[in-house]
Structure formats: structure tokens, C-alpha cells
Design a protein that fits this description.
Blueprint (H helix, E strand, L loop, with lengths): L5 H7 L7 H11 L4 E4 L6 H11 L10 E4 L3 H13 L6 E4 L5 H8 L5 E4 L1 H9 L10 E4 L2 H6 L3 H10 L5 E6 L16 E4 L8 E7 L4 H15 L4 E4 L3 H13 L5 E3 L5 H12 L5 E4 L14 E4 L6 H8 L8 E7 L14 E2 L14 E6 L9 H11 L7 E6 L4 E6 L3 H7 L4 E2 L2 E2 L2 E3 L2
Parallel strand pairs: 1-6, 1-7, 2-4, 2-5, 3-4, 5-6, 8-13, 8-14, 9-11, 9-12, 10-11, 12-13
Antiparallel strand pairs: 15-17, 15-20, 16-17, 18-19
Helix pairs in contact: 2-3, 6-8
Length: 438
């Protein structure tokens, strides 16, 4: 055990106490048992394994002690973000495809205690001897079912074969797994299954049915003025459909963001940032956004296309009605039969006859091509925007600082004046290049 104070840390992040699932996971991990944790999306699984993992870190060990494998870049980034919020004093690094290899190599020259990343990138670092594996005792396989689905089986198998000093594993999933692959070697693991627990969700399901292709688009446009007053995700089965509807909304001047696997990592981060900071309330997405990404509370979900499988339907719906909040799910459906997993007797609705106006949000996202690696901080940005740009603090919204870039939300009515005022300004003796993140 180290000096990490659980109660103080939880208080600092606004949590009074751990949930029963988190307490049981903590006891199991601290008891040095392997753990197979099954719990729904949004139930707090990340804290469930991070807290006891941190308690076991050795402050005197100078190399990697724990590896956390995530199926997606977004989940890896989110997990590291939660870890950093805990302010443990232990270093972490995040590695994933699309992230500059040069940065990761440099980071690994000064090894973190906790290494977080996607299986493909972590396997590459191990294969090329950039990681000293001798002190790695604990492996966490987060959202394991998704890692299998995304084709990471061989990479995970290679990693587990390479970590020859492992003495503990934790496998986490939001979905029941019929049979674990042999390479996981979890025969003696303790299983905590919270999937059957009924969340006290206030979730309403509504359907607009018997729609042709053109009617479906028209129904969406008619629903959006009301739905987009709060955050809404519109789900599609394929990225081509996302792009097609995105183009249509752009033609109509409707601000939105898009998210799918065909976007480069920088673009995916930008799109999610605009949703988080309130520059738009509308996100068009594939199932990549159904779990494992850092987005705020979502009020409404729209299934523009129904998924093929029940678990995808559940995870999409799980993006709303979290933490006992209310949420509504809308199904835009053609005249083909509904999937067997869709609940019967849905409330049938008709979109408003008149297309209302979609009100644009009060924020706009700005992009700055400087970041953490240029020694830029949030306070640097606030200082320049207020002292040089003439903004009040309440006219600056969420600021997200990446390795080589920053995204800053500002009040839209100040945009033109700000861009003009800061045209020739510098920050940390570097030219300040700002543009709208479109």
C-alpha cells in the first residue's frame, strides 16, 4: 500500500462514497484475486478498477507497473483523464493509433507507473522493447468484449504472453460473454455480475414508423428543433449514412458534429469537443459513440437506423437516462418489421407539422495550433483572451489542451472582434494562430 488517500480523493472529485459494485471490486483486487467484472455502461467501472489499482502502486518502482488495455482511442483517453483527475502523484501515459509515435517514444524514456492504451499500439511498444515489462504485475482489460469485436485478439494474446511477471488480471465488460478465449487464463477469477441489476432509469421510448426514405429525413428535420434544445445523439449503422445526413444538415445550415471510425483521430477529438463545450447540441454517430467515450449527459437518443444486435441497441440507449436522470429514445422506422429486441407497445408519435427553427447555441469553438508540448496551459489561454482579447471570464467556456493544439469555447457574439484583436498576438513568445474549428 502507498500513501494514496481514497476518501480525500473521492471528496475532491465530488463523490461521497463508492457504489456497492465499486466496493466489492476494490475488495477483490486488494485481495490479490483475478476479477471478471460485468457491469452496465455508465455504472462507474473505471473507478472500480482504478481506485484499488492505485492503492497497490509502489512509489519506489521507476518503471511501468500496470497496463490498462482499451478497445478505442477515446476510451483510453477518457481513462487517463479520470486517472489524472484523481491526482495520485503517479505518472501515466496514453498510447494509441493516430497519436504521434515520436511523442510516445519520448514519453516512454521516462516510464509511467500506469500505461494506458489500445492493444495494437501497446503491443508495438512491447515488440520493439520500448517498455520494460519486468515490473508489470497487474493487467486490466477494459471493455474486453469490444476489444475482441474490434479484432484485437492477437495483440492482446501477444501482450499477455509478453508480460511474464503478471500476478493479477482484471477483465471488465458491459456485456455478457459466453466463453472467454483460452489466452485470458481467468479460470480461477472471481466474477462480479451486476448486469442484471435494474437501474432506476426514467427512459421513454417513442417511435415514428412507416416511413419512406424521404419521410425519415423529413421527420428528423421536424423533430430536431425540439430535441436539439438539449444534447441529442442520432445513431446510424454505417459512416456513409452519417456523412450523407451530415451533408444534408449542412445544406440547411444546421450546426452539428459527426463521429465515426472513418475520421482521423484529431478530427474525432475536435467533433466531440464541440459537443462537450456546447458549440452544438447535435451529434451524428455510428455505434463507436455508444460506449467508451467522454461526452456529457445526453437528453435524447435517435435511432435513425436500428442496429442489428440487441447489445448495440442497449448501449445506444445507455447514453441517456444516466444517474437517475430522464431521457427519451426515438426510433425512426420504415415499414419493415421491428427487431425482436425492440420493446412492444412503443408510444407512437407524429413529428410537428411545421418545421420550427433550430436555435444555434451561444458558443463557438476556436482552434489554436499550440498545446501541452509547447508548454501552453489553460491559464495562459485565459490570460491572453482576457487581457489582450478583452473577454470577460464568463465569455470563455470549456478549454481543452491537447499535445499540440487547444480547443477553446467562446461566446459567439464576441468571435469576430476577438479574432481581429488577437491577429498579431503571441502566447509564450509563440505566434498565436487561431481559427474557427469547423
Amino acid at each position: 500500500m502507498n500513501s494514496f488517500n481514497v476518501a480525500k480523493t473521492l471528496h475532491n472529485i465530488g463523490i461521497n462514497k463508492l457504489k456497492p459494485m465499486q466496493i466489492e471490486a476494490q475488495k477483490t483486487i486488494l485481495n490479490k484475486e483475478n476479477l471478471f467484472l460485468l457491469s452496465p455502461t455508465g455504472s462507474g467501472k473505471t473507478l472500480a478498477f482504478l481506485i484499488p489499482m492505485i492503492q497497490q502502486l509502489d512509489e519506489k518502482t521507476p518503471t511501468v507497473q500496470t497496463v490498462i488495455l482499451s478497445p478505442s482511442r477515446e476510451l483510453a483517453i477518457q481513462t487517463e483523464s479520470v486517472f489524472k483527475q484523481l491526482k495520485t502523484g503517479f505518472k501515466s501515459n496514453c498510447c494509441y493509433g493516430g497519436h504521434a509515435m515520436r511523442i510516445e517514444k519520448n514519453n516512454l524514456l521516462h516510464p509511467p507507473a500506469v500505461l494506458i492504451g489500445t492493444p495494437g499500439r501497446i503491443a508495438d511498444h512491447i515488440r520493439n522493447d520500448r517498455i520494460d515489462v519486468r515490473a508489470i504485475k497487474f493487467l486490466i482489460l477494459d471493455e474486453f468484449d469490444k476489444s475482441l469485436e474490434f479484432g484485437f485478439k492477437k495483440d492482446m494474446e501477444y501482450i499477455m504472453d509478453s508480460l511474464f511477471c503478471l500476478n493479477q488480471k482484471c477483465l471488465v465488460s458491459a456485456t455478457e460473454i459466453d466463453e472467454l478465449p483460452p489466452f485470458v487464463q481467468m479460470n480461477n477469477a472471481k466474477t462480479l455480475n451486476y448486469l442484471a441489476e435494474k437501474k432506476e432509469q426514467k427512459l421513454r421510448l417513442k417511435i415514428v414508423d412507416n416511413l419512406s426514405g424521404e419521410e425519415k429525413v423529413d421527420s428528423l428535420i421536424r423533430l430536431l428543433p425540439e430535441l436539439s434544445k438539449e444534447k441529442v445523439i442520432i445513431f446510424f449503422n454505417h459512416q456513409d449514412a452519417v456523412n450523407r445526413i451530415s451533408l444534408l444538415l449542412k445544406e440547411k445550415g444546421i450546426k452539428h458534429t459527426s463521429f465515426h471510425g472513418g475520421l482521423k483521430q484529431d478530427n474525432r477529438e475536435r467533433e466531440l469537443t464541440k459537443l462537450r463545450n456546447g458549440s452544438t447540441n447535435i451529434l451524428l454517430a455510428t455505434d463507436l459513440a455508444a460506449r467508451g467515450i467522454d461526452i456529457p449527459e445526453i437528453k435524447n437518443i435517435v435511432h435513425y437506423q436500428l442496429p442489428q444486435k440487441e447489445d448495440a441497441f442497449i448501449h445506444r440507449n445507455g447514453r441517456t437516462a444516466r444517474m437517475n436522470q430522464e431521457g427519451t429514445v426515438f426510433l425512426l422506422h420504415d415499414d419493415n418489421g421491428l427487431r425482436e429486441f425492440v420493446p412492444p407497445n412503443l408510444e407512437r408519435i407524429h413529428p410537428p407539422e411545421n418545421k420550427g427553427n433550430i436555435e444555434n447555441t451561444e458558443w463557438t469553438t476556436l482552434y489554436i495550433d499550440l498545446g501541452k508540448k509547447n508548454k501552453i496551459s489553460k491559464m495562459d489561454i485565459v490570460g491572453v483572451f482576457c487581457k489582450k482579447g478583452g473577454l470577460q471570464k464568463d465569455e470563455i467556456g470549456l478549454i481543452e489542451v491537447k499535445d499540440f493544439s487547444c480547443f477553446v469555447a467562446v461566446k459567439s457574439f464576441k468571435l469576430d472582434e476577438l479574432l481581429s484583436t488577437l491577429r498579431d498576438e503571441k502566447i509564450k513568445n509563440k505566434k498565436l494562430r487561431i481559427r474557427v474549428a469547423d
